[in-house]
Amino acid sequence: MTVFTPTPPLRLDDPGLGDHFLRLVGDGDEYGAVKVVTTLHDQGVPTQRIMMDLIGPTQIRVGDLWAANEWTVAREHAATATAERALAAIAARNTVRPTRGRITIACVDGEWHALPVRILAEMLRLDGWRVDFLGPSVPGQHLVTHLHQTGPDAVALSCMIPTRLPRAHAAITACRSAGVPVIAGGRGFGPGGRYAQLLGADAWAAGAEGAVSRLGGAWPPPARDPLVHAFLGNDEYTYVVRHRPDLLTGGMRSLRASYPAMASYDDHQTDATLEDMGHVVDFLAAALYVSEPQIFTDFVDWTLEVLRARGVPPVALHAGLQVIHDQLRDYPTALSYLDTGLSHTSTT
Amino acid sequence: MQSAASSRVRTDGPAPALLRAALDAADEAVLLCGTVDDEILLVNAAAARLVPGLTPGGACPLDGLTGALATGADSFTDEYAGRHLAGRRRALDAGHYGWYLRDRTEEVNRAAALQAERARTSFLAEAGRRLSTSLHQGRCLRTTAEMAVAHLADAAVVVLPADRRRNTWLRLAEGGRIEEGTVPESRLADVPGLVEVLGGFPPIPSRWLDAAQAPEWLGLGPIGALLVTPLPGNAAPAGALILARRDRAFTPDDEILARSFAARAGAALSAAGLYREQADTAAILQADLLPPELIQLDGVELVGSYQAAHEAARIGGDFYDVFAPNQPGGDTVLALGDVCGTGPEAAVLTGKVRQTLRALHLVDADPTAMLRVLNQALLQSGRPHRFVTLVVGALRRAEHGRVRLTLATGGHPPPLVLRNDGQVEEVPVSGTLIGAVRETVVHPAEVELAPGELCLLYSDGLTEARGGPTATDQYGEARLRAALSTCQGLPATATVERLRQLVSDWMHGGARDDIAMLAVRAPGRTALSLRDGGAPNESPFALTTRRVRQRS
């Protein structure tokens, strides 16, 4: 292993420091990781830069390492937990008194990627906001109760995965119906945040810094009728969601018929296969919900890449798409999305 | 129009007397003009009544008509002496044309009244919609001020009834930011009409209020008109709305509109006040029932997690607690349990059980004794069908970074232990339900955790979570054990978070039961175990371990 000896002064623009920090969090070395960030802070590096230039980018590399099959999911979880400890260590040094309004931050129900949102929470605190961070996977009801009890000036809602868009939509509508404007963030809202507006969000920000400057500008935005954007989806979306169990069990039956080897699968393997097909159905439903085929094709392309890293031929995914396709005869939009997905899996 | 050359009087020149008589008899106002120099040749009686300044050959007092002539337009509208006029030009012969004037004052007034009525209606509708959204008093106050300044006045101050002899106020001036503060109740008398309104008396019409008397603390600056309106509440005013205008006076219509708006604002404010009282009460009652902040122990990782099925209330039938050692080197006691039922009733029982356990810990009862006494206490409480299932553990550190646990259960799923080789073991404890039968049977067990090993206490909400591909399957102990075995080498926080995530994905968002977890871990050599740990990939898609994560 190449050894980077962190000798002060540490420099954020030294790529060696990034590699070192990645190694520390990957080893679950909480002491080492905290030491790096507190040393930087002692040297006078602003907390914002430590979060934006070290902790945030490291987390992205952690995700990449998992996708490339270089890190196990356990190591990824350990790395995230360690990075959160490091973040908490410098956050504890924040002495900025709240001078602006109050902001509620939450991950949408079913969304567990909390680190980017924790960074946003700290960035906003440093900018003088009073911040309530409700955590990962916040059910809509809980969020709305909190809004009525605290009356914040904004809700910052994070969604990293498009399959959570219908729940994000419900949360956005509920927040705006409670009179609180919503700023959306996270990759789940699509390239350039284009689904955020469709779902009725008042604003969208690409990252923590964008959100800080948007909220520091002309806020609140003009009040609009929250019910204008209240309904999305169509009968195809409704069918796919309501028949999710049938689609999965029917799909499993077809797969067993075409792949006799599956007969010898144990429970664990069967669960895993069902879970994978569940993702196909969920991404299809999300694409139908916002009428955006790209959500589905992006999922297919990304899955192919993950498969390639694990030495699995694309035909596995192709078969999964095909058995769902075969069950949706009367749903032209769903079929056209699946056809595009199938063309991606057969040409790759 | 009138030049020196055309000043000659040609009043009756081209118009025979009969023509003149005919035009004077008409109701419509007519000006007869010559095409040369656009000179007015004849003004009929109706036109003279409508525009007294019009004379043949004289200067035209109608700017609209003058403008139409300059541009060659065939029609014009104008206002003259409070009347709205419209005129149309008609060619008559080669040398003459006529302007036909119409009084459209009533039409204009009707349209204006309709428009004003529509604006009032849409303003009140918007007020109703925006004010009804939030149950938070601060937000209602802000919305009230914002809407008042947008539609009714140049500045608005909302003053709330006194609380401990001080009144909270909130102010917004056009183009400014919202400001908030308090003022002693004794100063309210400085503002004309305010004491009456907050005292529940009828409001004083704006025209009787001297705007110049508005005190400096109101922060309104120089103003021309003042209106103080009550915000009606539940049998007592919810506050007062002070509106100020720089130059325009408040008309009686304005006062009526302000009062209609204030009625909506007052209703919203009183609802928010009631909600806050309830929420405050609930918060005080909940404070003791919520999961505790866990104590930090040297050399032991301790992590709890609680998800209530009724998320809005955040209290329910599952609980956990940790009690610090009574003396240095003593045992730390953990408890995790599940009382029958859900909702407030279950929460109250939970509170009693936790308090009883705490007291038993103070007298150094061991886990088995705790369960026995708790059983007696519940049976003697005289209220039947109040059961609880429970795990109690006494924890102490042993040599070489190991952690030793004595565990006892009463009708509760046995804790699981994750060993360093990835094996998951069930702790061999058993015991009967607590609070159900007089004679309890408790078989405690000892567990020793080497560095890096973890013991998980959980409630059956975790294994009985329904979901999966069919949406009705239970998560089950087999899946829990499999999931736990993939957590080998993880810090306890990451393990608990991962289990929460897995079961949440399993349920697909539909939590029906409380889920409590409490993990104890002897901190270990994380770095080594992580590098080659983790689950094998067995799915046909090879994505067994995947939690969906989009490419960054």
Automatic annotation (TrEMBL), chain A:
Domain of life from the UniProt record: Bacteria
Keyword annotations for this protein? Cobalt, Metal-binding
Outline the extent of the B12-binding domain. Answer: 100-226
**Mind telling me which Pfam families this protein's record contains?**
B12-binding (PF02310), B12-binding_2 (PF02607)
PROSITE patterns xrefs: B12_BINDING
What name has this protein been given in UniProt? Cobalamin-binding protein
TrEMBL record, chain B:
Q: What SUPFAM superfamilies does this protein's entry cite? A: GAF domain-like (SSF55781), PP2C-like (SSF81606)
Region Disordered, residue ranges: 531-552
Q: Which InterPro entries match?
A: Bact_Sigma-Reg (IPR052016), GAF-like_dom_sf (IPR029016), PPM-type-like_dom_sf (IPR036457), PPM-type_phosphatase-like_dom (IPR001932)
**Pfam families in UniProt:** SpoIIE
Q: Enumerate the spans annotated as PPM-type phosphatase domain.
A: 300-522
Name the SMART domains on file: PP2C_SIG
Supply the alphabetized keyword list: Hydrolase
Q: Which Gene3D superfamilies match?
A: 3.30.450.40, PPM-type phosphatase domain
This protein is called: PPM-type phosphatase domain-containing protein
Species name? Paractinoplanes durhamensis
